[in-house]
Amino acid sequence: MLPTDNRTDHEDTTSATDLLDRPIANRARPRALIIAVAAAFAPTLLAPATAQAAGRKKGKGAKADTCITVGSDETLTLTGTTTATCLTIEEGGTIAVPDGYSLSLTVNGVETGSELAALTDGNGGVATAIAAGTYSGTIVLNVAEATDVTYSTLTFPFRQAVYVDADGVDESKSVPSDVVGGTVTDSEASGITLLSNGEAFNGVYVAGGGSYTLTDPTIAFDGNGRCDFVGYGASVVGTGSGTTLVLDGANINNVGVVRTAVIADATANVIVKNSTIKCADGVVPDEYPAAGTGDTRYMITVPWMLGISGNVRATNLLGASTKATYINSSISSEKWGALSVDGGSYCTLTAINSTIANTGGEGYGSYAIGNVTEHFLGCTFDVGDYALIHWGASAHYGDSTKSAVSALNTSLSLGLTSAELDDLPVQSTTIDAGRFMVMWYAAGSVAIDGGTQVNTGETTFMCKAVAGTVTVDGSDGATITSGNGVLFQLMDTDRPSSVTVSGKAWSSETTGTYTEPTGSPTKSSSWTTTSSQSTDAKGTFTGIALTGDFYNSVWGGGNAGLQGQNLTLSFTGSTVEGVISASTAKHSVSTITKTEYREISEVTNTPSAVVNNGVLVTLGAGSTWTVTGTSYLSALTLASTAAIEAPSGKTVTLTVDGTATTITAGKSYTGALTLTVS
């Protein structure tokens, strides 16, 4: 239905800020508006006649300077891209496209009006509609070939400004009218602006072995995405074997639930340099379960059992053997996470001379799962809670030396030129974490070296009854400072489990509860506390001065299926001043639900005799332990040049199985060891 009262838009299209401010008049945004897609023969798609990006070919479209009105209960089926100067969709009216195609609306170069269906529709809430309302300006209704992307049991109908495959840009799957300014070719785009205030619209999607470079893009998306395990609604996605996506000088600023900035998936190699990436939380849909879900098809908030909140992470690394690298860049999320590896296996995440931050006071710097390798060289962390949440990985924090960066440039195929390598300054890593440096939920290693400076508001290393391993080499100046005086806490997991649900779209909800154990642990007859075991948590420290305590509070004895676990510590050429002991750890609350999510990992320790929680200490050559309080161990070994001391004016004594024993350099002791300061 085409009214005769045509209008013309005269607004300038050169400013990204102006574009965001342009009128989209009287636009209603009812949630869960679902459009019925009309079936029709496959049309010949037409490139839009207006709002063309530089370098694109113009084609035929609908007559310009027209108004389109879709009345209540009417369905307008478009078989080609259509332009107008005003559009009215009355409540109950719909615009449909044939099967196999998607519809996107841009107004003045901004994708807008798209709304997701409710999560509870059984399809992940992926159907989109153009919201009822009145739109005015340069209007393009883009009809593009569908880009359906499957994740698990759901299929997400991607729509993107630029679709790239091995042959270059595929305009039939793109929305050219969302590309403003700059130039676009089959191998690169430069200086383009992509804007969206609709939902689940993607910016640039590079797939199928394509190689593409984005230079100086500006991308600003304001509105919810839907799934960051596939990148539905992300600013840029690089996916597929042989795919390389390079972002240089990008400025990405997103607001919205899982409106992720950068997704690397399915063996792709994504390289981000000289860029700024910011993501802020959106408004969670009403139908989302109050406690959240761990079902990754539907998960749009961080599981609260990690002790944090938030609904967008800035990046995600997925798939098998995928690589993502951030060089001389700034990456921040409001909460949740800045850099994430989730849903992948044997991936590599790297950051060089970059800033990694949470701007909302909660969240993590990076998340590591699936045997991932993570490198952080010359980086600055300013994170709300954790520098790293560790679910099975190898992570390294060090200096961006010329040799280290050059080696990664080769092994990761980063493509940095000699000039770029020369221009990168050598920097040390600095970590400022509001609570913890690392939290382990699965076995894995962390290495800290160079001039890395670690500062945590609370416990530095938090290990949840797994074989977490940390190696710190302070010979080049690395330091560790704990805000609460605890350097290493080995403890039972306090992470509540998800609860299986039925009759809902998602398979589980995070409604579990953690309950503090009562009574005393029972000694296991099968657990050995006096010698190192393969399941021990381990800390190795070389050439460093440490001030702080080390505790092992694991109950064992069959508690949670764990017979016991030891904490094994080794010091070489180092000094340590503090308590090293088995302990009893207590939360300040006896139960933890979502309401008390910030109590996760928050415990106090009382040094206690070893039961199933052995503590094995080796003081290597040139090391000194100054014991500041009663410490309970199960094994102690001193090198011939090692020493145990008490603070000035005090003395330290040792008993072994209740018998007073002289502490002698070069000797080893096992059994029930108690060091007392008096």
Structure in words:
The protein is mainly beta. 3% of the residues lie in helices and 45% in strands. It contains three helices and 61 strands. The strands form eight sheets. The chain has a 31-stranded mixed beta sheet that branches. The protein has a 16-stranded mixed beta sheet that branches.
Gross geometry: elongated
DSSP summary, beta strand count:
61
- Using the CA coordinates, give the radius of gyration: 29 Å
Structural class: mainly beta
Percent helix:
under 10%
Measure the end-to-end span.
92 Å
Query: What's the total helix number?
Result: 3
List the helices and strands and how they pair.
Elements: H1 16-21, E1 67-70, E2 75-77, E3 82-89, E4 94-96, E5 101-107, E6 110-112, E7 114-116, E8 128-130, E9 133-145, E10 147-151, E11 154-158, E12 160-165, E13 168-169, E14 179-180, E15 183-184, E16 188-190, E17 193-196, E18 202-206, E19 211-215, E20 218-222, E21 236-239, E22 244-248, E23 251-255, E24 262-265, E25 269-273, E26 276-280, E27 315-320, E28 323-327, E29 330-333, E30 337-345, E31 348-352, E32 355-358, E33 364-377, E34 380-383, E35 386-398, H2 402-411, H3 418-423, E36 430-433, E37 436-442, E38 444-448, E39 453-456, E40 461-464, E41 468-473, E42 479-482, E43 486-491, E44 499-500, E45 508-509, E46 514-515, E47 537-542, E48 545-547, E49 549-552, E50 567-572, E51 575-578, E52 580-586, E53 591-592, E54 604-607, E55 615-619, E56 624-627, E57 631-638, E58 643-645, E59 652-656, E60 659-661, E61 668-677
